[in-house]
Amino acid sequence: MAWIDIFANAKYDFMGKRRIFYVIYILLITFSIFVIFLKGINFGIDFTGGNLVQISTKNSDISKIRNALSQLNLKDISVQNFGQEKDYIIRYSSEVDAQVVVNKLKEILNDEIILQRAEKVGPTIGSELRKQAFILSIIAIGLILIYIWIRFDFYFGFGTILALIIDLIMVLGLYSLFQLEFSTITVAAILTIIGYDVNDSVIIADRIREFLKRYEGLKLESQKLIEIYNNGINSTLSRTIITSLSTLIVVVALLLFGGPVLYGFSFILFWGIIFGTLSSIFIVSAIALDLKIRKKV
What we know:
Blueprint: H1 2-8, H2 18-39, H3 45-48, E1 50-57, H4 62-69, E2 78-82, E3 84-92, H5 98-109, E4 113-121, H6 123-151, H7 154-177, H8 184-213, H9 222-257, H10 259-282, H11 284-296
Antiparallel strand pairs: 1-3, 1-4, 2-3
């Protein structure tokens, strides 16, 4: 295929343009952090504690349900469509049983309302889950740094971790922008992305190491290092692009047909794969290269 041949014979000067990529990523990070601070993260009841009630109605729309719930004196109410047109998810933090809420809605709306699902998480458990998710992510990132440091060097380890943190900030920025619910499923998706991003970075780092071994024992000038790093990235570019596109096809299918339960998980995977692929090409090696050049100076 012609477009694959373009990547197979690539001779792009990624490292020569690395400062342009730095500026682009700084702007993206700044925007993501701004959105996160402005809109916040929409933590689900897994982390905040509270009640989740899934109902289906015959005639009532979302505005009528919101009006009816406002009469029940419940705290922190949120309502959203879920799945079918007349299916809804209701969240609230008050200590009121789900069946009581459903019965009250039936009386107020004079409609047929069916309770599909009810979940309750205490605030202590929610806080503990949030703490555990944070610790788990830190441990995963720390282990990755140690692994890459041992297998390659500190420069690639630092570059990989920094790019990974950048990717996660940008994904969370989008998650905050669209106010998607952050649940334990989201944490699973983030951990999946961490592994996927590192895989791309390791492949590129391994190829660069192979090229550097040809000059083992020699003192290399900055321009020669740039050439070697470019050759390493270009030689793996076809494999990186094809693998990411193949994975994205499956993830897009999940986004389109996986339903609302898997939407958040698929959303994280979709953007995480895109950001991870781009950062493994444009950022990881660039950071490693600049650190190596700085050490020489």
